[in-house]
Amino acid sequence: MKAVLLPGEREVRVVEREVPRPGPGEVLVRTRASAICRSDMSLYTGNPIVGGASAGRGLVVPGHEPAGDVVEIGPGATGLAPGDRVTAYLAIGCMRCEYCRGGKLMLCPQWKCLGFDVDGGDAEYFVVPAVNCLPLPDELSYSAGALLTDMVGTQYATQKSIDVSGATTLAVFGMGPMGGAAVLVGKALGATVLAVDLLDERLALARELGADAVVNSGSDDAAARLRELTCGQGPDAVVECSGAPPAQNSALDCVRKLGSVAFVGESRETTINPSDQLIRKLLRVTGGWYFPIGLFADLSRFAVRHELPIERLVSHRYRLDDAAEAFRAFDRRLTDKAVFTWD
User: Fold this and answer.
1) What is the DSSP code (8-state) at residue 34?
2) Which of 35, 84, 98, 157 is most buried, by CB atoms within 10 Å?
3) What confidence score (pLDDT) does residue 310 get?
4) Is a pLDDT exceeding 90 seen at residue 268?
5) Strands of 284-287's sheet, edge to edge?
6) 131 vs 153: CA distance, rounded Å
């Protein structure tokens, strides 16, 4: 089979490998869609943000957002049959610790990440534990299923955690793919959504996805403009998706007293003013990282019921043979959300 390897230093190899065989408790999946994520760029450059010694050295097939069809069942694997349409949960846990038993496998002290620690979906086939296979409704495409397990799932869990509803005015900072997913989810939950970004073309897409108003933070004071749009109060909730320190501070500055802020964009360091930005506003601040595995059934029903146009978040599609171009373009931000497809 064909598979992608990322040895680091922005090198991409498409190689021939044996089709893997599922071990005990595992299944073999024929890949039908596999999305490129911004975190994959850490493998592309050779500085993986997660993973063990093998990550970022061209030893592991990337791709932590895949979807496809089950083709073979390993010994002891139950609940699945060949032909089942599935998407894969990226966190592989011990299934014994308190975090795994609570459904948050990504918090397991022994967790392994699909596409970083073990071979992922940027190949014609991949193997995954049966427990990590999530049933993909017929109403959702494979590409939509791939995105559902990362961006859309992260936003659904995060926004539910801060009680986004029809009574909420929600500001979203950063209109990349994650921010686009935030707009889709926020609107489906009934919120009034205000989108913030530096780029007019991304703000135009936010409008298409349903944003009620947009703010260009390059030409406007974002926090001031958001307060203006909310009768001087500030939004009830903010989801920060860019990871940029100025946006993170604007998120804290603009939200109303007793409001909520969720940080989703990855960031190593930011300087804030806890007294004025958090304590004296009595804010609720949380991190948004992936979703509990048990939430997927509700998530997929939500996507189907609201007919979320998830594929609208896909900007480019590639064949696996074109992986070098796909990663090069993504690295240079010439694409927003790119997906390998086999259709």
Assistant:
1) E
2) 35
3) 97
4) no
5) 213-216, 192-197, 169-173, 237-240, 260-263, 284-287
6) 17
Asked if 284 contacts 262 with a C-beta cutoff of 8 angstroms, the reply is: no
pTM of the predicted model, to two decimals? Answer: 0.95
Burial of 304 (0-12, 13-18, 19+ CB in 10 A): middle
Residues 92 and 111 sit within 8 Å (Cβ to Cβ): yes
- The rounded mean pLDDT for the chain is 96
Residues forming beta bridges with residue 340, ordered by sequence position = 34, 318
At residue 22, the 3 state secondary structure works out as coil
State both tokens at 175.
């209109």
What angle do helix axes 153-161 and 296-305 make, rounded to 10 degrees? 100
Band of residue 48 on the pLDDT scale cut at 50, 70, 90: confident
- Measured in degrees and rounded to the nearest 5, phi and psi for residue 312 equal -65, -20
Query: How far apart are the C-alpha atoms of 74 and 77, rounded to whole Å?
Result: 6
Query: Rounded to 5 degrees, what are φ and ψ at 215?
Result: -130, 125
Burial (CB < 10 A; 0-12, 13-18, 19+), residue 151, is buried
3 state SS of 13:
strand
Averaged pLDDT for residues 213-229: 96
| Mean pLDDT, residues 54-76 | 92
